[in-house]
């Protein structure tokens, strides 16, 4: 069988040519990231947006791989807390994606944490695959057998990554390229590294999700974003066919320029959408805060609970009791005040253990995360 073994980065055969059009696109994309970073810095609580935006990254990234869970499914699961069933494999995969991302970012931010390296990616991969489909496919370990993409065997596959005996050399080169090539713009380097990782395909499963997580880690590690506010997988999901076509064109034709142009377009488009989303959500919260404050029967406890809603857009009374560290009657009164203010809506239809949704916030946040969007 024939397998594809990539040359080390940066590309030399053929070389990457950054002409005037790409240079202008790089400038525009860098400016878009600066505006996004500024938007995150200007809001009173960036944690609100990090909570929602990392989920907007994890859900579409999993959907690209065939997972059927939506953002609302994930938030409902989280709202149920420890009583939630762990039998839903799709939800488990999305939760694992979140855990992998949060682990990797935490490591990069800690003085004694792991640096950007294959060891960090391996640890993230172990968390991605733990207890999920593919848990028997060497979580956290580089594959020791041949894999392929499409088809039923390597002989009729759409793409066959490098054979396992070449991985040590290739991943060593890949790891060096994480910290080399500084003469290239960081966004170009990020795009190149994503292709290289996807081409090497070092794991038996989960390569796509780790490859997309890698972009998030690169943007933060290199100081292009100070928080994970770019949900790039949403763009790759929308343009899935072109995404795979561009990756294939790099391998078959050496079309690095076409891929980089596509990658930059993805970053600039999602950065612009994220800025608009942050502004929209912030404006909504400000308007709803005023509604809560003027609602008859509203209390200080209700106002406190309202400030927690962006990180708990689906909520049960039991969760409110825990968040507020108060009694059930007091929490119930606060929830009732938020319902009266038109902020919360009861969504379970139950008489007991009801669930409530910050529907207006959630409607804006979930755009693009449905299965058919």
Strand order of the largest sheet: 1-3-2
Number of helices: 15
Q: Sketch the topology as an H/E string, one letter per element.
A: HHHHHHHHHHHHEHHEEH
CATH-assigned homologous superfamily of the largest domain: Fido-like domain
User: How is the biggest beta sheet arranged?
Assistant: 3 strands, antiparallel
Query: What portion of residues is helical?
Result: 55-70%
Morphology call? globular
- The share of residues in extended strands comes to under 5%
Unreliable stretches (pLDDT < 50, length at least 5) are none
Give the integer mean of the pLDDT values: 92
What is the gyration radius calculated from CA atoms?
A: 22 Å
What is the highest CATH level, the class of the largest domain?
Mainly Alpha
Q: What is the CA–CA distance across the termini?
A: 38 Å
What CATH calls the topology of the largest domain is Fic-like fold
Brief write-up:
With 373 residues, this protein is mostly helical. It has 15 helices and 3 strands. The chain has helices at residues 20-42, 46-64, 71-80, 89-109, 118-129, 167-177, 186-200, 207-221, 233-238, 240-253, 256-294, 300-308, 317-324, 328-340, 359-365, and strands spanning 314-316, 345-346, 355-357.
Relevant terms:
373 residues, mainly alpha, Fic-like fold, Arc Repressor Mutant, subunit A, three-stranded antiparallel beta sheet, 15 helices, 2% strand
Walkthrough of the structure:
The structure is a single chain. This protein has 373 residues and is mostly helical. The protein has two domains: 20-265, Fido-like domain (Fic-like fold), CATH 1.10.3290.10; 295-365, Winged helix-like DNA-binding domain superfamily/Winged helix DNA-binding domain (Arc Repressor Mutant, subunit A, Orthogonal Bundle), CATH 1.10.10.10. The protein contains 15 helices and three strands. It has a three-stranded antiparallel beta sheet. The radius of gyration is 22 Å and the shape is globular. The protein starts with 19 loop residues before the first helix and ends in an 8-residue tail after the last helix. The model has no long low-confidence stretch (mean pLDDT 92).
């Amino acid at each position: 069988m024939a397998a594809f073994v990539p040359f080390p980065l940066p590309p030399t055969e053929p070389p990457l040519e950054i002409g005037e059009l790409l240079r202008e696109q790089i400038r525009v994309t860098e400016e878009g990231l600066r505006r996004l970073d500024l938007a995150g810095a200007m809001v009173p609580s960036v944690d609100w947006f990090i909570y929602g935006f990392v989920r907007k990254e994890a859900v579409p990234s999993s959907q690209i791989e065939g997972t059927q869970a939506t953002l609302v499914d994930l938030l409902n699961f989280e709202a149920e807390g420890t009583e939630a069933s762990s039998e839903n494999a799709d939800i488990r995969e999305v939760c694992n994606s979140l855990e992998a991302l949060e682990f990797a970012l935490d490591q990069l931010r800690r003085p004694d944490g792991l640096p950007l390296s294959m060891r960090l990616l391996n640890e993230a991969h172990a968390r991605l695959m733990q207890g999920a489909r593919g848990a028997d496919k060497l979580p956290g370990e580089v594959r020791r057998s041949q894999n392929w993409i499409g088809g039923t065997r390597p002989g009729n596959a759409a793409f066959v990554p490098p054979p396992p005996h070449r991985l040590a050399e290739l991943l060593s080169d890949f790891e060096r390229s994480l910290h080399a090539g500084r003469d290239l713009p960081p966004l170009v380097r990020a795009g190149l590294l994503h292709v290289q990782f996807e081409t090497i395909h070092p794991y038996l499963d989960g390569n796509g999700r780790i490859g997309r997580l890698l972009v998030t880690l690169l943007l933060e590690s290199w100081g292009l974003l100070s928080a994970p506010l770019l949900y790039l997988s949403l763009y790759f999901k929308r343009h899935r066919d072109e995404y795979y076509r561009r990756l294939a064109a790099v391998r078959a034709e050496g079309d690095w320029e076409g891929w980089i142009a596509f990658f930059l377009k993805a970053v600039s488009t999602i950065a612009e959408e994220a800025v608009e989303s942050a502004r929209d959500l912030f404006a909504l919260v400000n308007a709803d805060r005023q509604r809560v404050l003027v609602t008859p029967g509203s209390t200080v406890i209700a106002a406190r609970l309202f400030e927690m809603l962006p990180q708990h857009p689906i909520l049960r009374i039991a969760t409110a009791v825990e968040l507020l560290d108060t009694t059930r009657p007091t929490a119930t009164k606060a929830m009732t005040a938020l319902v009266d203010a038109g902020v919360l809506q009861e969504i379970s239809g139950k008489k007991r253990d009801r669930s409530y949704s910050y529907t207006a916030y959630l409607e804006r946040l979930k755009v693009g995360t449905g299965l058919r969007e």
